[in-house]
Protein 1
Amino acid sequence: MDDVDAGLRKVLGDVLGLNAGRLAALTPDTPLLGALPELDSMAIATLFAALEDHFALLFDDADVTGETLATFGSLLALVRAKRGS
């Protein structure tokens, strides 16, 4: 687990209230949108704001899609791409 992965897990835990066990169980293929009841429309807005703060990034509206929120891996890939890592 690298810093981006750990940071994303921390933000998800903080925003969605996920416990350490649920966070540790996340794999790249773990579904997010539609699978986590905590991830509703309000949580999505809060999540992206928290990601911007945590990683010092800016997301465009086009970044917030069902595809980028489909799995932990797709969201992680977006954050890595935005960071240029």
Protein 2
Amino acid sequence: MKNEYPMVTHDRIEINPEVMLDKPVIRGTRITVEHILRRLSEGASAEELVAGHPRLDVRDISAAQAYAADYLANEEIVFA
């Protein structure tokens, strides 16, 4: 079966080979889920992220976290 692009996952996340090399991004932006998660891990609040990226909404931050959690839930972990 052929992949259809852009692929939309969660309402606010999309994966499109023409945007950020197929990395999951907030739909309609070039802001990656990875960027959001890294900034949160550095201690930034959702409000700080929204203030720094006017196209973001607090719901986008939650969507990025949910996407990452769902992605990890489906990963197979192999211990060497």
Protein 3
Amino acid sequence: MSLTYLTTVELAARIKYDARTIRNQLKDSVLLEGVHYIRPFGGRKILYLWEKIETDMFRAPAIDTLMMGIR
């Protein structure tokens, strides 16, 4: 399977979010390292894995996620 690697700016254009929102709010809460993004060669640069993100965007949230604010 071939993966599509995107920078933060490229991902922002695809999902119609501001790049700052991705960096400050989505990264490490919704988008997880090793699942949705990688740091090639252990560096600072982040590359997002489009196929993984696209799959999870269409997945319905788990009931635990929906109930987090109620507890």
Protein 4
Amino acid sequence: MPLEVLCFYQKNCVGCDEQEPINREVEQKAGVKIEEINAVETPEVIKKYDLHLTPTIIVLLDNEIKEKFEGVIQSEELEEAVRRYL
């Protein structure tokens, strides 16, 4: 399976609102799609990915977690993490 980048968020989360434009920038620069998932509406993912806070970004390669970032991550760091697995 190819590279997947998941961003878990929840409504009314200030950090999530801050992360969203960073994700769009990284999508354009790295040529990847970052899938946004509402963690509150999908409680099964909270346990599956051991989520503690939002935003949380997970980089998966072949369904294996390669990187996990809790809280807001800046575009340079996220882009670098994504490019490691392209």
